[in-house]
Amino acid sequence: MYDWDADIPAADREKLLDRIAHEVVKRRLETPTILFLEMNRPLAGIAGQGIIFSAGMLAPIFGLNNVQRVSKLLREPGGVDALLDRIEALSKSDANPEVKH
Is the pTM of this model over 0.85? Predict the structure, then answer.
């Protein structure tokens, strides 16, 4: 089982950021996601704790390890900034063939 307080290994953190950003860009939700994250940046730590509280409902849908990693990503300093940077970079990238229409 994943440790709620353990740091996310760097490789896993990068994969998680890529996966979230890819899903956001694939669904063309860059603008609302960026606005939402920017507006709620001060509450990111509380959101991370809220995910822990809601883990019982979220885990069957997303998997416990994914829920724990996203919670940790939101709670860690710079996690939201890293996600914003990844979403913005991926949305501007011409190298992503799934984003092109």
Answer: no
Q: Which residues of 39-78 are buried (b: 16+ CB within 10 A; e: fewer)?
A: eeeeebeebbeebeeebeebeeeeeeebbbbbbbbbbbee
Give me the pLDDT at residue 101, please: 46
Tens-digit pLDDT profile for residues 3-46: 767 788 888 899 999 999 999 999 999 999 999 989 988 888 88
Distances (CA, A) of 85 to 5, 50, 56, 88: 24, 23, 30, 5
User: Distance between alpha carbon 77 and the CA centroid of its chain, in Å?
Assistant: 13
Q: What Cα–Cα distance (Å) separates residue 22 from each residue in 3, 19, 86? A: 26, 5, 9
Q: How far apart are CA 49 and CA 55, in angstroms?
A: 10
Q: What CA–CA distance (Å, rounded) separates 44 from 39?
A: 10
